[in-house]
Specification:
Strands 1, 2, 3, 4, 5, 6 and 7 form a 7-stranded mixed β-sheet that branches. This protein has 5 helices and 9 strands. The chain is 25% helix and 27% strand.
């Protein structure tokens, strides 16, 4: 043992968990996946899906397993990335627990199913949660707020907005992703010009989709680029 730790006070074993903020767009609203906790602490309260990481698995493996166990959603097709670690004292009444938070994005994901220690799983509007004090257990409201800002910022510099769309998609459908996530309208002509001129952002399929009114809409799929060139800055949109 390191001599600096011998006889030290205030040192205890810590647990490591993973928590997942999963965003999708349903009925033109940004939604986050929540579970109703089936056990203490915070039994009956809404929380993000997640749980302890097993000794024989990586953080990513733990995140995928917890998502499947608690909601029956397969995380393999989703855009999944770490957004940070949270370990303030007192965040979990069971003791010192550090959590690694993940952000996952997907297109119109299915209705989830509860499982393991989650009594119920469901989609909830993100903005409604952030407007309600103590809406979520633990420090999950803070994690959701951080995940929302990460998503808004990521849309400015990467092509990740396409992960919210099922292929093939139209430009209005893609524009709707930006409007829902950023919470403001965008000029259709300006968006069309920027999206089609961004190098490697979109790939035209050559097909069209009939519309209720007006001309058929051209269909696109995600291009090869991962970064937007030039970026879509919110301040300039």
């Amino acid at each position: 043992m390191d001599d600096r730790l011998k006889g030290s006070t205030g040192v205890e074993l810590s647990l490591v968990t993973v928590d997942l903020t999963i965003f999708t767009i349903r009925e033109d609203r940004l939604m986050v996946l929540l579970v109703e906790r089936g056990k203490e602490p915070f039994k009956g309260r809404a929380a993000l899906p997640g749980g302890r990481v097993r000794v024989d698995e990586t953080l990513d493996e733990g995140a995928h397993r917890e998502l499947l166990e608690e909601t029956a959603i397969d995380g393999a097709p989703l855009h999944l990335e770490q957004i940070g670690a949270y370990g303030d004292p007192g965040r979990d009444p069971r003791g010192r627990v550090f959590t690694v938070a993940y952000l996952a994005l997907g297109p119109d994901l299915p209705t989830p199913e509860g499982g393991t220690d989650a009594a119920h799983a469901y989609w909830a509007p993100v903005l409604d949660l952030l407007d309600a004090a103590d809406a979520l257990a633990f420090d999950h409201a803070r994690i959701v707020a951080d995940a929302l800002e990460r998503t808004r910022r990521t849309l400015e510099y990467t092509t990740v907005a396409t992960t919210f769309c099922r292929e093939p998609f139209t430009l209005p459908e893609l524009r709707n992703v930006y409007e829902v996530v950023w919470g403001r309208g965008l000029d259709p002509s300006n968006f069309r010009r920027r999206a089609t001129r961004a190098e490697g952002f979109l790939e035209a399929t050559g097909d069209q989709r009939p519309q209720a009114t007006g001309r058929p809409a051209a269909l696109y799929r995600k291009g090869e680029a991962t970064l937007l060139n030039p970026p879509f800055l919110r301040s300039a949109s």
